[in-house]
User: What shape does this take?
Amino acid sequence: MGCTATTLLLSFCATTCFCVLTSSDGISVLPSRSDSTTKGKDWTFCYLNICMCSGPLANCQFGHLTYIPTLWDNITQLNFTDNNLHWISNDTFANITHLNLHFLSLAWNKIQNISDDALAELRELKHLDLTGNDLLTPIDLATAFRGLDNIPLQSLTLSGMKLKHVPLNMFHGMKNNVLKYLVLEKNHLEEYNQDAFSILGNIRVIELGGNKISSLKWAHAPYLSRLALDGNIITKVPSFCGVNSSFYPKLQKLYLEHNLLTETRPYMFKCLPHINILGLNANPIEGIETNTFSELPRLKNIFLKNLKGSKMYIKNHAFNNSNVKRLTMDGSQFTYSDNNVDADSFSGCTGLQSLDLSFSDMYGVNESFFMQLFKDLRGLGGLALGGCKLVSVPDAIPLMLHNLVYLKLFNNRLTFLPKDLFRNLTKLTHLYVDGNKIPEFDEDTFPEKLRKRLRNVNLANNPFSCTCSIRWFLSWVHQDKKKFQQFPYFYKCSSPAYYLHKSLSEISFSEQSCLFERTVYVAVLGGTVPLIIVFVICALLYRWRWQIRYYMYLLRRHDDRIVDEQHLTYDGYVVYSTDDTPWIIKEVLPNLEDKHGLALCVHERDFDVGGAIVDNIVESVEDSRKVLIVLSPNSIQSEWCQFSINYAHRKSLVNGPESLIVILKEEISSRFVSSSIRLLLDPQTYILWPADDEDVEARVLFWERVAARVKGVTGRE
Assistant: This one.
C-alpha cells in the first residue's frame, strides 16, 4: 500500500519499498526485490541477479553495490536503497546520465560525501531521497545541493539523518529550484526556523514530525500550505501575525499533535486566513480558552483527541466559529459535571455538522446543562457520546437535534431508550447503542418508518431478555440482517436462565406459544391469593437477581467511528496495487475525477498523515459511498489489497452489493484467485477493461459505464 508524506520512506519504505511523490500529500510505492509483488511476470532481472526492472521502474535495493550499473533506457525511477555509495561524485551517475530519471532513492547508503557537481547531471530529477544517510552533515548537504540549482526537483526527503540543525545557508544552492515538498522527519532537530527555508520560494509542504523541536521561529512563507510539527517537544506556539500580514497566508493544514502544549489562548491561531485543518491531538493541554479558534474564516476541522491535561476545562465560547464543520474530542475525558466545562462551550458553532465527545465523563449532568450545551448545534448531523457514563439519553437530543443522521451512544449505562426518542429524528440512518444494559427494545421506540430508514444499527452487547416481548425484534433482525452490525455473534440472551448465552439467531417464539404463555399468565394471576403472592415474590426475587447481573455486565468496547454518513467525503475509494499506479494516474483519475467530477479516495494521495495503514483503509472505506476494486495480477497478490477487498465485502453486507464496483484490468490466472476474489469475478458484477489500445470508443463506453455505476449511489447529475 501507499505511504503518506510524513512517513515518506522512513517508516514504511525503509524495509520493503520505495516511494514516489505524486501529489500534494500522496505517495506512490514501488516494491523491493524481496517483496512478493515483484515475483510476478512483470518484473525481471535487468542487471545480474541484483537489479529488477518493470517498465520504467528499476529496483536495486539491498544489492551491496558500490556503483550504479547501466540500466534499461526507459528507466525513470530508480530505487538504490541500502547499497554502499560512500562517496558520490559526478562519475557515480555516469551509467545513467542518459536516462530521463525522475525519481532516485539513495536511502541508507552510508554516504559520507557528495560533491557539488554530482547531482547536476540528473537534469530531469524530480524526487530525491537521502533518508538514513546519517554520516552526512549539514555542511555536506549544502555542498551537494549546489548541483540541484537548475534541476526541476519537486520533493526532497532528508529523514532519519540525525540532523541537529538546519543552517540558514543549507539550501542556498537551490535558490532557482522549484522544490515544493521537503521532509525532515525523525531527525534530531531542536529548532524550526523558517528563515532557513525561505530561499525555497515555492515550498508547499514541510514535514518535521518526530524530531526534538522545542523552539519555533516563524518567517514569511507565501505558498506553504501544510506544516507538520507532530511528535516534538513544543511547549508554546508563537503568534502567526507578522508586520501587517500573516507569516503563512496560505497555510491550510497545521499539525501539532503529540507535543507538550499545555495551554490555549484567545485568538491563538489568528492570522491563518486559509487554515482548514488544525490537529492538536495528544497534548497535555489543560483547557480550551474563550475564542481560541475565532477569526479563522476557513477552519473546518479541529482535532483535540486524547488530551491529557490535569485540569481539563473548557471556557464559554471556546469553539466560537460558525465555519467549523467537524470537532473531534474523543478520548480527552473532560468531566462535564464539575463545572469545568461551561454550558456555553459550543456557543457560536452554528455550522457544526459532526461532534465527537466520546469517553468524556457526563455522569450526573442535568438536562438543563445539555439543553444549553447543544442550543447552537441544531444543524448537527452526527453526534458521538460513546463511553460517557450516561444513564439516560439526554432530552436535548430528541428535542433539539432534529437533523441527526448518525447517533452514537455505545458503551454507556443506558437501561432503556425512551419511546419518543426518534420521533423528531426524521433523518437518522445510523444508530449505535451497543455495549449498554438494555434488556428490551420497545417496538414503539422503533416504528416501521424508522426501521426502514435505518441503514446501520448496532445494538450488540446488551443483556437481552429473551421472552415473547422481543418477538417483534427477532422478526426485524431476521428480516434486515445486513443492517445489524455484529449480528449474530454479539446478540445474546442474558435471561431467562435456560436461554443464557444463546444467540438471538438460535431462538424463536411462535404466535401460538406466546398466546399460550399469556393465557397461562392470566390464569395464574386470577388464581388464589396465596398463589398470586407466591408468584409476585418469585418475580421480585427473580427481578432482583436479574438487575445484579446487569450491573455486573459492562463491556467497554472502544469505537473510533466518527464518519458523518450524510456528508461522506468521497464518491469512491479505489483499491489497487501500487504496481498499477501509472494506469490509475493515466486512466482512472482523468476519466472519473476530471471528466465526470467524481471525488475519489486514492491511498497514495489522500491517506491521513501519520496514521496507521489499517486505520487509513478502514476510515477511507467508511468515508466513501462506493468501493472501486481494480483487479489485476498485481492486486490479487497484495496483502493490503486483500485486506481492503475483505473489508469492502463487509461493508457491502450492510450497504448492498451495489456499493462495490469491480474493474477487471487484466486476465488473472486461476491459481492466484482466492474465494473472496472469485466472488468478485461473477460476469454479472465486474466491468472488463478493453485491452485494445486502439479501441477508443470501447474505452469511452467503459468509463461511462463505471461513472454511471458510481453516480447511481451518489445521486450526482
